[in-house]
Amino acid sequence: MDKTGLRNNALQQRRALQSHEVIELSQTIAERLHDLISWNTVHQVHVYTSKMSLNEVDTAGICKQLSYEFPAIVITKGEPSKQALIRTSMYDVIIVPLVAFDGSCHRIGFGGGWYDRFLSTQPQARKIGLAYELQRVEAIPVEQHDELLDAVVTEKQVYVPNKNAPT
Predict the structure, then answer these.
(1) What are the C-alpha distances in Å from 25 to residues 54, 114, 153, 162?
(2) The domain that contains 92 carries what CATH number?
(3) Residue 160 in contact with residue 166, Cβ under 8 Å?
């Protein structure tokens, strides 16, 4: 299936989630993310601004928790669009939205390419996608400009590239 078909299927499945499911799953994903990173070594974080109307994994709680537990971390919230400028700050961690992903940590976004362009300027950053397990697909068709994530965190597990089994 091509990216458009994968995107449409994943969005349809995500739209079917009830609001209480989004809240519960987002909390579990946030806990997994919290345990994944040594936050006391992080200085700059970019976090996408989730859109609850799209049933995205909620990032507001993640930002609130990081601000409370690690007040020295500078958090930049992102709302990309095709016209948005690419940020020039250098980040330690970038929390990336996605519509679909595969077990090798390839992602499909909304098709604007903003995050692929942004991630290509951040080779030192840990690039982590947040998703529900239902967004996982067998394989993403990869194009030259597509940026590989370092991990994808779901409510069930953490996927990392080049590993036979998710952790």
Answers:
(1) 14, 26, 11, 26
(2) 3.40.50.10420
(3) yes
